[in-house]
């Protein structure tokens, strides 16, 4: 009896130590964590946009921006076009919250590749964020197309590989290990 209890304990310990370690070691990132220091500083120093007062006069800053004559418009353009990345994030296991913008579907209309963006409607209803604020994600987990209205946590291996599509250009890519509905942590 004692011998059988002892053997059961040993077998339990052997089985316990043989269990695979869960890959819950994802570093949670905020979107600003993807920005190199110099891009973050530029973004923080951008002038505010005034939405008051109707149309700008023909010689106004908004109209001059198209000729790159306005330094504030040039600063905005530089930030919005940046594809600078943090090299130290390459091949890191991370977890990022965001919204899904579908790029590819399978035969059953499941989303198989998408852009992960920091806010709803990016790339579709409004101009896309800068490339270093977009992550191109490939996944094997089935995501129905009607689920794109909710935010998600995407966990996987982040790389500094760029991807261009008609909708946008991303400066980061990720192979998703896990996709789950967003909950504030």
UniProtKB/TrEMBL annotation:
Residues 1-23 form the signal peptide. It comes from the Bacteria. Pfam families: DUF3299. Keywords: Signal. InterPro entries: DUF3299. This is DUF3299 domain-containing protein. It comes from Rheinheimera tangshanensis.
């Amino acid at each position: 009896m004692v011998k059988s209890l002892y053997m059961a304990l040993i077998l339990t310990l052997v089985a316990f130590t043989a269990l695979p370690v869960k890959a819950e070691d994802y570093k949670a990132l905020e979107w600003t964590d993807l920005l190199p220091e110099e891009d973050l500083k530029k973004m923080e120093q951008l002038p505010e946009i005034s939405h008051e007062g109707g149309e700008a006069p023909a010689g106004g800053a908004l109209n001059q921006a198209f000729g790159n004559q306005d330094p504030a418009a040039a600063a905005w353009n530089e930030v919005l076009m940046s594809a600078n990345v943090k090299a130290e994030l390459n091949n890191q296991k991370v977890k990022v919250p965001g919204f899904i913008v579908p790029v590819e579907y399978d035969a059953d209309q499941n989303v198989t590749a998408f852009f992960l963006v920091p806010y709803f409607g990016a790339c579709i209803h409004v101009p896309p964020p800068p490339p270093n604020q977009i992550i191109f994600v490939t996944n094997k987990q089935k995501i129905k197309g009607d689920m794109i209205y909710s935010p998600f946590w995407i966990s996987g291996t982040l790389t500094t590989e760029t991807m261009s599509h008609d909708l946008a250009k991303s400066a980061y890519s990720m192979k998703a290990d896990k996709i789950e509905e967003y909950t504030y942590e």
